[in-house]
Design goal:
It comes from Amycolatopsis rifamycinica. This is DUF4230 domain-containing protein. It holds the Pfam family DUF4230. InterPro entries: DUF4230. It is a single chain. Strand 3 and strand 4 form a beta hairpin. The chain has helices spanning 3-27, 46-56, 147-154, 161-179, 182-200; strands spanning 59-75, 86-101, 110-112, 118-124, 127-128, 132-133, 139-145, 205-211. The protein has 2 domains: 1-41, no CATH class; 46-211, no CATH class. Strands 1, 2, 5, 6 and 7 form a 5-stranded antiparallel sheet that branches. A 3-stranded mixed sheet has the order 3-4-8. It contains 5 helices and 8 strands. The protein is rod-shaped and about 80 Å long. 38% of the residues lie in helices and 28% in strands. By secondary structure, it is of the alpha+beta class.
Length: 216
């Protein structure tokens, strides 16, 4: 082997020794850890991801209430009431649900801190669904009819009278639900649900607020 060959062998041995020394020093933390240039790094953007996850829920059925209303309907005419007219007491039984809509949330509706410790969510107020009347549980409690009215109904002369009772009872159940605590219960339940969800994801400081939805 010539002089150049010996020099190349010596240089290769020196490089191997140097690399081994660097690796050992890095392993015992004497030198900064070398990073794999081919390794992939993932940056997490919790705000948009969290917002998308909430939007995909579409809406949360947060509270349900059962209601019973009394519908009192009287009809009359120029003739005496014992001939034409009626007094009806109808017991309407039904339900109504309150929900929180997530589908219209915008980008700034969910705010997440850089350290992933705090999150705030701004929602629109809870809304009521149309009330549902249970026609099997609803019934006429009492009815007084004039002679001609009774005969006319027996002959099928007023087929829409029962439907009118149903519609009026449904409207009264809707009104009763609006006056009840159903909306407030729905917002409280939604706040509890979202707080539990975010806590399971590691967030510690969670704020859920409600505001009128921006029409634009």
């Amino acid at each position: 082997m010539g002089a150049w060959g010996k020099r190349l062998v010596a240089l290769a041995v020196a490089v191997v020794v140097l690399v081994a020394a660097v690796l050992v020093a890095s392993a015992v933390h004497l030198l900064p850890q070398w990073r794999n240039p081919f390794a992939q790094q993932t940056e997490e953007h919790s705000g948009p991801v969290l917002l998308q996850s909430i939007v995909e829920l579409s809406r949360y059925e947060a509270a349900s209430g059962s209601f019973q209303v009394v519908v009192d309907i009287s009809t009359s005419s120029a003739l005496p009431k014992f001939l034409v007219g009626s007094d009806t007491l109808f017991i309407g039984v039904g339900t109504d649900n309150a929900y929180v809509d997530f589908s219209g949330l915008k980008g700034d509706a969910v705010q997440v801190s850089e350290d992933r410790q705090s999150a705030s969510i701004r929602l629109g107020h809870a809304q009521l669904e149309p009330a549902t009347l249970d026609v099997h549980e609803s019934h006429v409690y009492a009815r007084q009819q004039g002679l001609f009215t009774r005969i006319n109904e027996f002959l099928g002369g007023n087929p829409n009278s029962q439907q009118a009772l149903y519609e009026l009872a449904q409207k009264q159940i809707q009104a009763a639900a609006a006056k009840s605590s159903l909306v407030a219960d729905a917002e409280r339940n939604t706040r509890t649900m979202l707080t539990g969800l975010l806590q399971s994801l590691g967030y510690k400081n969670i704020t859920v607020t409600y505001a009128d939805r921006d029409p634009g």
